[in-house]
Specification:
- Helix 1 packs antiparallel against helix 2, helix 1 runs antiparallel to helix 4 (110-134) and helix 3 packs antiparallel against helix 4.
- The mean pLDDT is 92.
- The protein is elongated, with a radius of gyration of 17 Å.
- The chain has 140 residues and is mostly helical.
- The chain has helices spanning 2-32, 36-68, 76-104, 110-134.
- Helices cover 84% and strands 0% of the residues.
- The protein has one domain.
Length: 140
């Protein structure tokens, strides 16, 4: 029971952090910082910190899932947090460097990279939301 509560707490923190950065932090940075590139740097720092938190929280949840009852094969309750970690790493270390390069050089590709970064972030949030949704209804 305690393990489930801890997993739920970590997942709720993860999902809340994703929502806070993506839906509040980044828009507020662009709404309040007058210089666009400085606002982008502020938002980027928030996304970077959230990516690090996502990796830590996702690995912790996966370890707790394995302690719940190791099985020979991985189930959705282990794969969803790992998929969230995958999307965090893909976004921050695969997509964002291209986005930043495109933004700095004023490339016409910047919009494409921004859209891809947004999609990867949304997929991460979807994985975490699905995990949070599944957690209360299952037997441990």
């Amino acid at each position: 029971m305690m393990n489930r509560r801890l997993r739920w707490l970590l997942a709720a923190l993860w999902l809340g952090g994703l929502a806070g950065v993506g839906l509040i932090g980044a828009p507020v940075a662009f709404a309040t910082v007058p210089e666009k590139m400085l606002a982008a740097a502020v938002a980027s720092k928030g996304f970077y910190l959230m990516a690090i938190a996502s990796i830590v929280l996702g690995v912790a949840i996966t370890v707790l899932e394995r302690w719940r009852g190791p099985t020979a094969r991985m189930d959705a309750d282990q794969l969803l947090p790992l998929a969230g970690v995958f999307f965090a790493v893909l976004g921050e270390f695969g997509v964002v460097p291209h986005l930043l390069q495109a933004a700095v050089t004023h490339s016409p590709q910047a919009g494409l990279w921004h859209g891809l970064a947004s999609l990867v972030y949304a997929l991460q949030a979807l994985c975490v939301a699905a995990y949070v949704w599944r957690l209360p209804g299952r037997e441990d």
